[in-house]
Write a structure and sequence with these properties.
Shape: globular
Helix content: 25-40%
Number of helices: 6
Bound molecules: cytidine-5'-monophosphate
Strand content: 25-35%
Distance between the termini: 13 Å
Radius of gyration: 17 Å
Structural class: alpha/beta
Strand order of the largest sheet: 5-4-1-6-9-10-11-12
Number of strands: 12
Largest sheet: 8 strands, mixed
Length: about 210
């Protein structure tokens, strides 16, 4: 099977030297890519800027902004069997990007932000899709309720929910998996590598039911 995996943060430029981003390390997405390759699958890894070496056997696409990630995902989704959107895409980007460095001044400044396009939701809207669609939800509160809302609103097959305070920038995670039919499955705290192996098995089995 072919896995398309997004990982890492995106960077949304303000001017040529500044950007908005987040603390995503990319470790969960890269671990899923490694686990899928180990299980004999093909992997397209679409990654924002991270400090990790891309898995050797993956088709690797390096992106920076949410718009670049959107385009790369849409280019490869239909030829994939399982799309796992693990990236921490920025929710907002500057309304305008200054072509020159914005000068420092004593006055207060404010930055106008506009929402980025939701890549996961855009795939969920494709009603005739053939691939299994998996999203992630990193939450700090009401984990299950927020994840269930995301599953519905983004029309995914599976949402993998985790506590953002445990998951961000660390090597460990614990997961709650929500399926479209209402089933849930908890995987207790473990290394991202172990969790990735479990996830790949779950995704493969679910794809066979799509
Ligand atoms: O709404 P929220 O950002 O919490 O949703 C998280 C899920 O949606 C993740 O799977 C993430 O990769 C995806 N997402 C996306 N494009 C965005 C925002 C989030 O694909 N612009």
């Amino acid at each position: 099977m072919t896995f398309l995996i997004t990982a890492g943060p995106t960077q949304e430029p303000i001017d040529p030297v500044r950007y908005i981003s987040n603390r995503s390390s990319g470790k969960m997405g890269y671990a899923i890519a490694e686990a899928a390759l180990d299980a004999g699958h093909d992997v397209i890894l679409i990654s924002g800027p991270v400090n990790l070496a891309p898995p050797r056997d993956a088709k690797f696409i390096s992106v920076s902004t949410s718009d670049e990630m959107f385009d790369a995902v849409h280019q490869h989704a239909d030829s994939s069997d399982i799309c796992v959107l693990c990236a921490a895409v920025a929710d907002y980007k500057p309304a305008q990007v200054s072509p020159v460095k914005i000068k420092k001044c004593a006055a207060q400044v404010s930055l106008e932000l506009v929402p980025t396009r939701d890549i996961l939701q855009s795939l969920g809207l494709q009603e005739d899709r053939k691939f299994l669609l998996v999203g992630f939800a990193a939450e700090t509160d009401h984990l299950e309720a927020n994840a269930a809302k995301k599953l519905r609103e983004k029309n995914c097959d599976i949402i993998v929910a985790n506590d953002a305070r445990i998951a961000m920038e660390t090597d460990e995670n614990e997961l709650l998996i929500l399926f479209r039919d209402g089933e849930t499955k908890k995987i207790s705290r473990s290394s991202k590598k172990n969790l990735a192996r479990e996830l790949v098995k779950i995704f493969r089995n679910s794809q066979q039911k799509v």
